[in-house]
Amino acid sequence: MPATVVVGTQWGDEGKGKFTDLVAREMHQVVRYQGGHNAGHTLVVDGQSFALQLCPSGILYPHITPIIGNGVVVDPRVLLAEMEMLRSKGVDPSNLRVSGNAHLILPYHQELDRLIERRLGSRKLGTTKRGIGPAYADKASRVGIRVQDLLDPKIFRAKLEGLAREKNAVLAKVFNQLPLDPDEIAAEYLDVCAPALAPHIADTVTLVHEALEAGQQVLFEGAQATFLDLDHGTYPFVTSSNPVAGGVCTGAGVGPRYIDRVIGVAKAYVTRVGTGPFPTELAISSEAIGGKPAAAASDEEIRLGDHFVEVGREYGTVTGRRRRPGWFDAVMLRQAVRLNSLSELAITKLDILDDLDSVKVCVAYEINGERVTHLPYHQSDLHAAVPVYEELPGWKTPLSETTDAAALPAAAEAYLAFLEDQVGVPVTLVGVGPGREQYVQRHAG
Length: 445
Fold this sequence. Notes:
Elements: E1 3-8, H1 16-23, E2 29-32, E3 41-45, E4 48-52, E5 65-68, E6 73-74, H2 76-88, E7 97-99, E8 103-104, H3 107-120, H4 132-140, H5 153-173, H6 182-197, E9 201-202, H7 204-213, E10 218-221, H8 247-252, E11 259-267, E12 270-272, H9 299-311, E13 324-326, E14 328-329, H10 330-340, E15 344-348, E16 358-367, E17 370-372, H11 379-384, E18 386-393, H12 410-423, E19 427-431, E20 439-441
Parallel strand pairs: 1-10, 1-11, 2-5, 2-10, 5-7, 6-8, 7-9, 11-15, 14-16, 15-19
Antiparallel strand pairs: 3-4, 12-13, 16-17, 16-18, 19-20
Helix pairs in contact: 3-4
């Protein structure tokens, strides 16, 4: 009863979609288990780019049943637009199934997300303002509206009426905003969204278990990444769900004994969007939200930071925001290995390092004069952490055409072997470009 999990091991944007798509070839189902449309996976197939926010990456394969699990929060308008985008590019989304127990994102959630972030001012979290956090908050408060409620207009309207009273009072009294019209929301969700989504709404827990019990291969796909996890990330600069591999159990409704392979995806360097601590961060010439001030950095550091952003095309799939770049952090990866029980690693964007004379890897932190090799639990220590680097020679060779592990330059192979040694997990897959076929199988998975 084999199940595989693909999970991000940094702060997101590691390129999980590419390797989920790759591993999905041998799967029967691909299941998204948490998050919302604040996450974006970009796939490049035959020169055509697909930017997915809600649909599982496996939707590009006709033999796969793509599933949105109960742990996801769904804006039905975004999902329907994404399905239409797929149709326009020749992909049939009719096999998509959406859990009836997934929670809906409503216009209230997005409006409050925007207003709360603005009110926080300099303490803002850097959210995507997509309503994800407020939707999960309503779920935890047991006042949320679920996908299944779209199938019963009477229940939907009753729940919406109660929610509208609460949310409109907050909008008016706290933020001095005009109320939203619940009748307009009901009309859009019930008259437009519900008929289009109804054929896709299902008991996804049963679907997944039937597949597992039949010996079929199931892939579980997370959004965001380990250090954006609500419990294990760099709180409060995190998402509102659990992207770690354990989130599969609650977000898709399966027990841990079904999972026998956990693939961690890490970029050959690190990026972060929004605010929050970032020990190996490099400054960049133009401002990024929460980024390291260029005035505090050398010209060489800024040149390297700009290289990662521009050559790596480090702009958010969903928001277009410029990401904050930094060197690979093995201290973080050791913690990610623990938290996710990783069985292997996929390293993406190794080709972005092609032109560098040397590459650095953070192997420890210095905190208050003490060298530590584990991630500190206290936020003040993480903010104060100074990276301790090992410097390795670059390979000065383009990798984008490399498909055979034996053809990797010796310095590139040495870099990958060094990462393996630092984190204790084999690197089985290596990305050398954005295309579906631009990868190297380094060891058997």
